[in-house]
Amino acid sequence: MEAATQPETTRGAGSLARAVRDTFRDRPWAWSFAAAALVWVVTYLETSRGFFGNLTSAAAVSSFLVIVGIGQLFVITTGNGNIDLSIPNTMTLAGYYGLSVMNGHNSALLTGILVALVVGLAIGAANIVAIFVLQIPPIVGTLAVGFIAQSASFVKSNDFTANPSPALAHFVNATLLGLPLLALCVIVLAVLAWILLSRTIYGRSVQAIGQSLRAAHLSGVRVRRTVALAYLLSGVLAGLAGVLLAADSGGVQLDIATPYLLNSIAVVVLGGSLISGGRSFIAGVWGAGMLLTLLVTLLTVLNIPVASQNVVKGLLIVAVLSLAGGKAKEA
Q: How would you classify residue 80: left for phi > 0, otherwise alpha for psi between -120 and 50, otherwise beta?
């Protein structure tokens, strides 16, 4: 009986392994969640405390990255070299202008947020001019626009003393049933972004352009308008993230958003989306955001030097990308 049972058990284990493999193959974004869970558990084993505290803290910190990651995702999904490298400087400039309007008063809260969004919208429009009017490649054009925004931030930073609205500062640190309120709001934002990308004509147009520019054009997609709206969306979300990050930090510094340059791209690619465009997963941005945040926490707990942390992060990114198979576009 044991001899007869053994092959059946082996077949069952093999079927389970194939099911798991197929699940991850069909859902490449799941690798980022699996890696984040592994890092979370390892962090707990190393510290023996803060099991759920580490998770909720990571969710709160990841919220800013997820916001800009969603904007970057829409741009990257259009493919054809489209990318937004102006994001960190947009965040910084939006933070300066948003806080200068608030100046520590709740009465100017909404106006300050609106100004931050307008700053992001203006920089998104500048990216469009650089790419479509001046015919500058996106990687160069958005970087140049970012440098202009950086210069504006330098000017704005002179004798800058404005503080965020107390209500906004409270919001970014508030909790609801033990969960970060900001993270819950960003989850709602992610759901809306998923609906926009997967359930609307605009979202399908974004993906179609990334899959084949010529085919999208021949099918009647307004390519320039679609891509332009992606850059505007990225700018607005960067502006929103900038003013929220400034409120969380209690002020603005010139280097406050520097890590978001590469991390905004990393969360898109680690989340299962193709860097070449055409296939994207909003859920993956959350998984990748949690992974990067938890990883920094773990490396800090282990007293790993910053230079070595970058090496470890790079190796992990390569490993996750290899497992996800998201480096090349599917045929």
A: left
237 occurs within a structural domain: yes
- Give me the amino acid identity at 21: R
Tokens matching residue 193: 């972004």
pLDDT tens digits for 141-193? 999 999 999 999 999 988 888 889 999 999 999 988 888 999 999 999 999 99
Are 186 and 63 spatial neighbours (Cβ–Cβ below 8 Å)? yes
pLDDT value at position 17? 58
**Residue 176 forms beta bridges with which residues?**
179
The answer to whether position 284 is within a domain reads yes
Would the pLDDT of 327 be above 50?
no
Residue 189, both tokens: 């934002």
CATH assignment at residue 177: 1.10.3470
d(CA 142, CA 134): 12
Residue 23 resides in a domain: no
SS3 content of the chain, % helix, strand, coil (to 5): 75, 0, 20
Q: Determine the Cα–Cα distance for residues 44 and 50; give it in Å rounded to an integer.
A: 7
- Answer whether 320's CB lies under 8 Å from 270's CB: yes
Q: What 3-state DSSP class applies to 160?
A: coil
Closest Cα partner for 281 from 33, 20, 21?
A: 33
Token reading at 76: 């990257």
Contacts of 175-181 spanning 24+ positions with Cβ under 8 A: 175/56, 178/52, 178/56, 179/56, 179/59, 180/56, 180/59, 180/60, 180/63
204-224 in b/e burial notation, b at 16+ Cβ within 10 A?
ebbbbbbbebeebeeeebebe
